[in-house]
Amino acid sequence: MVDRDVLPWWGRGSVTLLGDAAHPMYPVGANGGSQAVVDARVLADELARDFDGGLRAYEDKRRRETGDVVAANREMHGAGATQRPKTLALVTAKYRKDTRA
Q: Domain segments of the chain: what residues?
């Protein structure tokens, strides 16, 4: 797993990043996945609203917001909120057993 500071930019020209490519973070609270979904939604909304300026508007909105999430995840990870491999294995086994029915 990886955690990186927020990049100074996500896109250039007609190319941009989203999800972990734009803002990798510790896997605390499923924030990486949920932030990718939010990125996609904001990107789609901004492109629909203003195709030519949509990439820049998306980046301007999401870079600040995801920076806050990255910082919060980093703090929670440092405080021990991340599950240990053995604990995750137990949770996964219980989930599989409970959902087989």
A: 19-99
